[in-house]
Amino acid sequence: MPSYLVERAQLPDARGVVLALGHRNLSGFSEARYAKYYETNPLGLPVVCLARTEPGGPPVGMAALIPIELSVSGTLVRAGIAADFAVDAEHRGLGPALQLQRALLARMPEEGLEAVIGLPNAPAEPVFRRLRFRELGRFSRFVKPLRTGVLLDRQLGRPVLGAVASALVDPLLPLVTRERRAASRACSLELAEAFDERFSPFFEHGADTPQVAVRRSVALLNWKYGLPQEPANRLLAALSRDGSVVGYAVVRERNGVLHVLELQAAGARAGLSAVLSGLARYARAQRAGALSLRCLDGARSLTSALRPPAFFERDEQRPLLVHVPEPRPGTAPLLEPRHWLFLEGDADL
User: Which of 108, 144, 168, 321 lies at a 20 to 30 A Cα distance from 278?
Assistant: First the structure.
């Protein structure tokens, strides 16, 4: 097995080699993605390590830590998400891959990071486990069917069959899934161009959050979802009768399904039920076939409102892992799955 030299990439000078490795090895890696996470992240530049077979040789692998901020029992904790893990095909295995991740973890103290979150695919998972990452659980997907016709047409390519099924079944779906229309009267959902000053009091005092969650703010979320410039991501604000923000959702339509990337509400389960009822009505108006929400919710702060028959749960294989090299009382909840809520938008790197 060849030996590898692993060193920290100097950004922005390493832009070209990072882009080349990403294009060769990572689906969806683009210049736009690089600009977002490597140049304009309001939390700072990522830590990037490169692997070479010899000094001055071309890089054959890379790995990055994207900075993130967590709220742990109301206290800010700086962390990183392990991302853009790429090794050229002829060098794959536990050689450079393990060295790259070790090199990133070794730089945690100098970067002021107290935790690293891992979302590995199946080939990369053994690397993270070798480095003693702790599994917090596996993601679950919750699906609410809205239009049988749209789903059957997408799945079977049979529009006539879909139209017949839709006419027979769709009027019954609100009854079968027990949609709570009364709860939806507590707030109204409105499309918003971007997060603005109306949301600040909600983030500071109104949101019901578990002990461990990604920290949210107006500036961070607008950057994260490219608002107001990114048309694919839509922000729905839940407003009370006096116009104050009591919740919100960020959604994205893919293949006839409305995917919920972000969902927050005040008022615990009643507030979530009201926002979810409004989302269902909005999705039907957009002719979506289903609502879909993917998360890991050990705290059950969100999924308690996503129960059958309104939503159907499907387990997924991708794990959420965490590495906390020096736990202290303030970071101990990071190691307990029952304290976590991690949404699809949090993992959308």
Answer: 168
What's the pLDDT score for residue 182? Answer: 43
Domain boundary among 100, 132, 164: 132
DSSP string, 53-109: SSTTSPEEEEEEEEEEEEEETTEEEEEEEEEEEEE-GGG-STTHHHHHHHHHHHTHH
Do 153 and 291 share a domain, yes or no? yes
Q: What is the largest CA-CA distance in the chain?
A: 68
* Total of domains in the chain: 2
Beta strands (DSSP E) in the chain are 5-8, 47-52, 59-72, 75-87, 115-118, 134-145, 188-192, 212-214, 233-239, 245-254, 257-265, 290-296, 312-323, 342-343
Residues 63-116: tens digit of each pLDDT: 999 999 999 999 999 999 999 999 999 998 768 999 999 999 999 999 999 999
Return all residues near 170 (Cβ < 8 A) that are at least 6 apart. Answer: 146, 147, 148, 149
Q: Are residues 93 and 212 in the same domain?
A: no
CATH code: domain of residue 154: 3.40.630.30
The total of other beta-carbon atoms located within 10 Å of residue 38's CB is 22
- Cβ partners under 8 Å of residue 204, min gap 6: none
Residue 51 to residues 96, 130, 332: CA-CA distances in angstroms?
A: 6, 19, 33
Burial 101-138 (b: 16+ CB within 10 A, else e): bebbbeebeebebbbbbbbbeeebbebbeebebbebbe
Give the domain extent around 231.
139-347
Rounded CA separation 251/229 (Å)? 15
Cα–Cα separations (whole angstroms), residue 250 to 112, 165, 176, 178, 260: 30, 30, 26, 23, 6
pLDDT of residue 96: 93
Residue that has been written with the tokens 């979530």 in this structure: 272
Q: CB neighbours of 78 closer than 8 A, spacing ≥ 6?
A: 67, 68, 69, 70, 111, 112, 113, 114
